[in-house]
Amino acid sequence: MSINYSISLKPNNFNAQMYNNVNTKAQASFHSKLGTNYTQINFGNTDYFINNQKLREKELNKYLKAATRSYDLSRYHTAIKNYKKCLEIKPDFYAVKLKLADSYKQIEKLPDAIKVYQNILKENPEDLEALTLTGECFKDMHLYENAIKYYKQATKINPGFDLAQRAVKELDNLILEQFNPILAQIQKQQHKDENLKQSLKIFRNNAPKDLVNSLNGIQVNFGETAELGGHSNIAQYEDAEGKITISDCYCWASPKVIAAYLVHEAVHAKDRDPYTSITEEQDAYRDQVKFWINNGKGTKDPELDYAAYLYRQSPKALDDKIKTIYSSRDCNIRMESPHHTKALKKPIGRFLSSIPIIGELFE
Predict the structure, then answer these.
(1) What pLDDT digit, counting tens, does each position of 272-299 carry?
(2) Whose CA is closest to 325, among 243, 205, 234, 241?
(3) What is the pLDDT of residues 135-182, one digit of tens each?
(4) Sign of torsion, CA 118 120 126 130?
(5) Which phi and psi (to 5°) does residue 35 adopt?
(6) What single string gives the DSSP state of each residue in 160-209?
(7) Nearest to 335 by CA among 256, 278, 258, 260
(8) ∠ CA 165-131-21, rounded to 5°
(9) Is pTM beyond 0.70 here?
(10) Whose CA is closest to 261, among 5, 40, 3?
(11) Could you tell me which residues are beta bridge partners of residue 171?
């Protein structure tokens, strides 16, 4: 069965630069420092560092490259060893601390990951990324009260930070489930129904009319979504079933967030076919981002804000990211799909594509 889907574009949990007001210079170059460019590291201005800069930079780059390579190959124990070497040379290397903690998470050494995050929080108690990820670790350990403490701290710093807000709602329900599972289930379903009602209202009142019309006859609900490349879809459109499914874990998200994902899936539904493509995903993300920029004000969501950040750089930057991510996760995805090429925007094109032999030429 073919599914049109929206997935996470983010290489990490979220972009700290967008949400933290403190130490933004250290966090702004997060991705580049852990990418292929290792030559721009600033060691400070003391005589010791100036005199030994080239040697120490070479040593740091060696360990950083080894750590990055190991992490990308899922060799997390080796990555941890090399990230620690990096921190021996440059103890305040923020990005490396995050990757070290994440490596611990990958091998389920959650207490060790928490120690690293708490070390970051000692230096910057308002670091939203460290607060959120600490909460996530405690949640995975089923220590819900501890997790709520960190998520609530994040919401105090940024009340519009929806990732933390929805985590608190989810954890409250999980705590209730321990004492009264039936009531927890009832309250969760009530929340789903109300959230979906509000989300559809925002979508219908603010989305382009052609996209609103494309959902006529389409069932929308929260539920389990398929996986792609080891990652669950955030949302998906299934043409054969005539339905859109939003990942169940998003049922606690703001209706504005859900409405933005409905825009994305409405682009898929508009074609009324089970096929997707790079071009179709690019168009879906562009419409989703434009909707989010216009209607998501006051709400911060890591995934949507990251896509908007790329779009504001240039629409091409967003398109390039989508092409890279979708190509890597779905080796069968094509650049064009039958009902989503420029030629097929004309009625004659759509008619020709419906003829099996000719339609193959459009794929």
Answers:
(1) 888 888 889 999 999 999 999 999 989 9
(2) 234
(3) 999 999 999 999 999 999 999 999 999 999 999 999 999 999 999 999
(4) negative
(5) -95, -130
(6) TBHHHHHHHHHHHHHHHHHH-HHHHHHHHHHHHHHHHHHHHHHHHHHS-H
(7) 278
(8) 90
(9) yes
(10) 5
(11) none
